[in-house]
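Progress note, sequence design subtask.
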C-alpha cells in the first residue's frame, strides 16, 4: 500500500480514512460492513433454521458385514504362506530348498493380503 501523502504536516482525507479503518467500505455508500468481513450481506433462500456449530455425524447406511469365510481365508493364506517360506528355508520340504516353494509361500501371502481388502 502506498504511503499517505502529507501536505504541510496534515494527512489527506484518504490517509485519514485509512488510518481510521474506513477503507473502501467507508467510502462506498449503501454498503455495510459486517462482522465476518463481508461488505455486502449474503442472501440465502433458506427456509430452515440455522445449523448449530456442533458436528452431527451422518446417519449410517446399512452396515456392510463380510461373510465369516473372508477372515478365515485371509488368516489361513497368511499363516500358510509364512509356514511354507520358513519350511523352505529350513530345507524340510521334499526336494530341498527350492525357489518354487518360495514363490508358493509368497503367492499365499499375497492372496492373504488381497483377501484382507475384502474384509469389512
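Output:
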Amino acid at each position: 500500500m502506498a504511503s499517505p501523502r502529507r501536505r504541510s504536516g496534515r494527512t489527506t482525507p484518504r490517509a485519514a480514512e485509512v488510518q481510521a479503518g474506513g477503507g473502501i467500505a467507508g467510502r462506498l455508500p449503501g454498503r455495510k460492513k459486517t462482522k465476518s468481513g463481508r461488505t455486502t450481506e449474503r442472501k440465502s433462500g433458506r427456509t430452515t433454521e440455522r445449523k448449530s456449530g456442533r458436528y452431527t455425524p451422518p446417519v449410517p447406511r446399512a452396515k456392510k458385514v463380510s461373510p465369516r469365510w473372508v477372515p478365515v481365508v485371509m488368516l489361513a493364506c497368511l499363516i500358510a504362506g509364512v509356514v511354507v517360506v520358513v519350511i523352505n528355508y529350513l530345507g524340510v520340504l521334499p526336494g530341498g530348498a527350492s525357489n518354487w516353494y518360495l514363490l508358493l509361500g509368497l503367492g499365499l501371502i499375497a492372496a492373504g493380503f488381497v483377501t484382507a481388502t475384502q474384509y469389512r
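The radius of gyration is 36 Å. Work on this subtask will continue into the next period as scheduled.
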